Amino acid sequence: MTRPTPLPPLVQTRIATRLGDVRLAASPRGLAGLWFDGQRHQPTDALDGPRAWPADGAHPVLRAAAAQLTDYLEGRRNGFDLPLDLVGGTPFQQAVWQALSAIPHGAVTSYAALARGLGRPLAVRAVGAAVGRNPVSVIVPCHRVLGSGGALTGYAGGLPRKTALLRLEGALPESLRSLPLWPEVDADAGPPARTPLAAGVAA
């Protein structure tokens, strides 16, 4: 089994957003992490505790990421212009994360379509696992991936956030558009039930 590449030394900062607090981490090469508080698969020991990455809110990449993320969530921008450092994963995970980065604003795809695009049509579950371990949420847009048949399922930051992000981008189906744009998010409440989406998503 291929092991993930170890993360280089990083610095971090915490910012408040309309979807809850976010941790940002950067290496000398670029942004290496964006996790919502309580998000699954975040490197908890590296974010908190005696061996945590040092805080550096003045780091230029972290400052730029904080500003661009705020603008995105306020609807003032549709994309990001940041150097990324996605070395902290296996080659397969990195390939999946690169494929996620190619999904445009306002569009959605499925885990099966991602697997086919990578030339691994039978690796849908492995693709799903790699999507769930995406270390740079929102900017590497794993929220734009839907389940089989267009089900709104699977988001490490919680389905209320996924719903809000898709609605912000105009990608949420008509049946769910009556939900508040910024639903109250409780990271400890666990994921809500699967919600079917409208037809038209590539399976």
Walk me through the structure.
The protein is 27% helix and 13% strand. The chain is α+β, with helices and mostly antiparallel strands and 203 residues long. It has two domains: 11-74; 91-176, Winged helix-like DNA-binding domain superfamily/Winged helix DNA-binding domain (Arc Repressor Mutant, subunit A, Orthogonal Bundle). Strand 2 and strand 3 (30-36) form a beta hairpin. Helix 4 (111-117) crosses helix 5. The two termini are 28 Å apart. Residues 13-86 form the Methylguanine DNA methyltransferase ribonuclease-like domain. Its main location: cytoplasm. Pfam families: DNA_binding_1 (PF01035), Methyltransf_1N (PF02870). Keywords: Cytoplasm, DNA damage, DNA repair, Methyltransferase, Transferase.
Can you count the beta strands? 7
Alpha-carbon distance between the termini? 28 Å
CATH top level of the largest domain?
Mainly Alpha
The helix-strand sequence is EEEHHHEHHEEHE
Q: What secondary-structure arrangement, pairings included, does this model have?
A:
Layout: E1 11-15, E2 22-27, E3 30-36, H1 44-47, H2 60-73, H3 91-101, E4 109-110, H4 111-117, H5 124-132, E5 145-146, E6 151-152, H6 159-168, E7 195-196
Parallel strand pairs: 4-5
Antiparallel strand pairs: 1-2, 2-3, 6-7
Pfam family, one: Methyltransf_1N
GO molecular function, one term: methylated-DNA-[protein]-cysteine S-methyltransferase activity
Subcellular location: Cytoplasm
